[in-house]
Every structure is written in C-alpha cells, then in structure tokens.
Amino acid sequence: MLEKQPQTVLSVEVKDFSRLSHIHWRAPTVMGVGFLLGIVLMGLHHALYQTLSGEPADHALLQLWAIRGGTAIAFLSKLAMAIGTGVAYDQWMWVDLHAKPHEIGSLDSMFAVLGNAFEFLAVGVWVRRPVLAFLAAVTWLLPISAIITPGTLSIQPVIVATNGTLKVPQREYTTNNNLYCGVTTNGDTTMYATMATGLLNPTFSTVLSNSVLPVQSSSSNLTYNLQFFGPAISCDLAGGEAFAWAKKAMLQYENMTDSRVFYFGWAPQPGWGPEVNGSFFASTDVQIGNNRLDFTSQDAARVFIYLNTTGVDESGNRIPGFAGEPEAQMMTCKLYNASYAAHFEVKSTGAQFITASPTFENWMPALATMQGTPAEPLVSRQMNMQAVMEAFAMMVTGPITYSNDVNFPTTNSVYSLGMNQALFPSRPGLTQTEMTMRQARQNEMLFQNITLSMRYSVVSGHIGPDSTTAPANRQVFQSQFVYEPRTLLIAYGISALFALICVLLGVHALLRNGASYTSSFSTIVRVTRDRALSRLIADEGDLQGAEPVPKHIRRAGVRLGRNAKSGSPTYASSWI
C-alpha cells in the first residue's frame, strides 16, 4: 500500500477545511427545524390540554380522542427532536473520527448505537467518548416525555357550582296554623296555656344532639342563607341584688335539706323577690318546673341559674375529701326578639353544617294574656316565641343536689344536664365565674339550636308547612378534563433543554469539522478506500460481511478523514 505524501494531504486539508463551504445546508437545517418543530408541538400540546381543562367530559368519544390527540402530539414532538439530536450525534461522531484512530469494533458501536440500544453495553467505548455517549443517550431518552405528558390530562369528578333559587320549608311564627303552644280565647283576648306537645320533639332531640337537627336532605351539595326574626336569649352574670336574694334563700334551703346545691335553674314566679326564703326552692312547682315562664318580670322574660361547682367533678359527682370553702355564682338568661342571619350547608353525603348569628332587637316579656286572636300575626308571633322560651326553660330548670351524707346519691332533675354531658357546667381548671360564663354561652347556643330546629328541621318525618325562597348555590359532581400543566411543562422543559444542548453541540461539531457528515454507507465508503483494508478482509468468509465480525477485523485500527495524514501506514490503516 502506497502512502500519500503528507504535504499533499495537508494542502488539500487547508484548501477544503479552512472554509465552511463543505457544511451542507441539510444538517444545520434538520437540527434547527427539528428542535423548533418539537418546541412548537410541545406548545400545541399545552394549548390543547389547556383548552380542554375544565370542560365537561360527558362523551366517551371526546374522552378517547382527547387522550389520543395528546399522545400523537407527544410522539411527534419527541420524533422531531430525536431527528435533530440524531444529526447532532452524527456531526460529533465525525469530530471523534477525525481526532484519532479507532478500532473497528468501536466503530461498529458508534455507527449502530442510534438504532440498537444494546451498543451501550460496550461501556469502554462510551467512557472514552462522553460527549458522544451523552448525545446518544439523550436521543434514546427523549421518548420518556411522550410517556409522561399525555397523562397530564385526566378525567375526574369535579364539583360544579350553579346559582339559583331554592324553596325552603319552614314553620312560620306569625301564622295561626303554626301555633307552638296551647291557647284559650275569650272574645278578642288570647290567653297562653302551655307549650304544645309538638315542640317537645325538636327540643329534646336538639338537647340530645347538642346541635341543630337536620334540615331537608338534598341529592347535591347546597349552600344558602336565610334571614328571619325569631326568639333569642342573652345570658350573663346576675345582678348583685338578685344574686344576694338567691344566696340567702339557697343557704336556708341547703340547711333545710341537709344538702349542697350544685345547680339550680328556675323562672321567676310568685314568691321570688327580696323576701324569698328556702321554702321557695323547696316548692314542688320550682323543683319540677311546673311554672316555666316568667310572667312576673315587666321587661324581658327570665331564667335564673345558680351554680356552685366547688368540690364537684366534671360529671357532677362530689370530690371525696374536699374541704374547700364553697363558692357560688348565678346567671340570668333574658328573652329577646332577634334578627337571625342563618347559613346552611347541606351535603349530598348527608352531612350538614348550620350556623346562625342573631342580632338582638328588643327584649320580650312573657304575656299570660294578650289582646287579639291567634289569627293576628302579632299575637301568634308573641305566643310562639314565648313557647320556645318555655321549651328552653323546661330543659334547664330544676336542681342538682347532693346530700351532706356521703351515703346518699346525687339528685339530678335537670333534663339538659341529665341527657347531655356536653352541656354540663363543671370543668377542671376553671373558676366559678369562668364556669358560669361558659354555661351562659352553652345556654345561648342551646336556645339558638332549638329555635333553628323548630323552624327549619325535619321533625318526626315532617317538614314545615310554609316555605320561603332563598338564593342558593348548588354543587354537583361533573366529569371534567383536569389538566396538570406543571407536570407537562417540567417534562417538556427537561426534554427541550437537553435537546438544545445536543443541537448546540452539533453546531459546534459542524464548525469544528468544517463540513457536515452523515452515518450513511456512502459516507463510510468515501472515507475508507484503501488496499490495506482489502488485504485485511481478503478471506472469502470475511467478504460476505456476515455476523459476527471476526476478531482480527474488530481489533484493527482505522484512520479516517484528516486523521489519516498522521502515523505510519500499516495493513490496518486507511485514509482519503
């Protein structure tokens, strides 16, 4: 084999590679267009999913084609970028080929790796060519984004809110067909008798649940607000004068009965005043609450509650061995007319959340008689509101006492505290005043819950005979397309970043080579003409080109392109 003169090789190289005239437009165009087309397709994928996001997915065909369309765009974007990075790989491969000799086995891996991932197993080849390995790996890994990005659009049940009006059943205070008390009439005079039996159910149920009773259920989530006028109470520490009367009489009552009073609730009635004594509290009417309405006060109807929780645990049982000084306190709960702003959240699951905020308008007395008939709104409203006050008083009046003889049990005749321990006033760590104020807030909430339950709740399977209209927000579940743009943008962003690095490496390789190359057979043929190669594969079996490559051929070194000018000729060397 004759070696070309080094001077001739050098002069040809200077002539051909000192300019960029051998960089064909196709290589940089394919890299640039492939990358830009991939970016455009990624943006189109995002725009498609953004358009579908939040739209109803109520047709199976639409669901199928939405996912198919996203998958197709993801595939095309990966394909466009992989074409660009593949061309960049070819350009950098020729940077390596020009730089030094290569074993034929290494050339096999370098030329085949973009079509056969098993060539990555030739670890030694790629450790010595990290940039080339990076370009090949990126080209192979770009399809990962096509796996992740179509899954960023899913179909999920989403709560959809619509505004409208709702017809809400209620029990009105001002109509004569909704009387919550018994009355007698004498001409145009109405006399209050007692609360109606129908008011007992919502009252007892409210105490047991310690919450507003459920309103009419709904198949969808509903939110609505109602405003109405109704009764409310305000509870606070009793004035000094009334408290002094109660303390004096209560001490007499404790001495009479050889007991300690833990709790005593009562409504003012004849006998209550400056001259009250222990006999007042020993009265059967006060003990069992026969007189539950305060017809004696001229302003607001009242309920008094006397507390002495000293030496008593949170269940109302005496603390053994307690020898502290007894301490008592008293509260007054007054009846008011109030305007309510009630908020209702009714869930399709059956859960309900009902809250209200009363604004006190004016105090209300309890009237034994009233001019007018129950058909008049003012009369029916007054009778109904004081009936709610009586229902509340029925729950909180009566005594809880325990005998000074430890062998006798505690006596409890108070409905609310006997049925619901959550309403119990005693709590560890609180002073008597703090416990009294805590109980005051509990009583206000209990009265409010009774009022709301009586007015709007389903009681004994029945709803209110009247109704009112309220603006409502209805929430239903709807199948919608839900798009996660962050995941798509991250996946595509990483792909685009690595593809851009590959393209820039390809451009750098073009400038460094001074020419553009491919890995096509014609390119290989043009750079490997040499007699030494013919002698190397002279064997007839080797001429067939069948696998596997013989070891002596695989280990042979080859000089390609500009690298052919250096080194001494051998049977394993070839150059242009």
From TrEMBL:
Keyword Transmembrane among record annotations: yes
Transmembrane segments annotated in the record for this chain: 23-44, 65-89, 109-127, 134-153, 489-511
Taxonomy, superkingdom: Eukaryota
Keywords: Membrane, Transmembrane, Transmembrane helix
Name this polypeptide is given: Uncharacterized protein
Organism: Cladophialophora yegresii CBS 114405
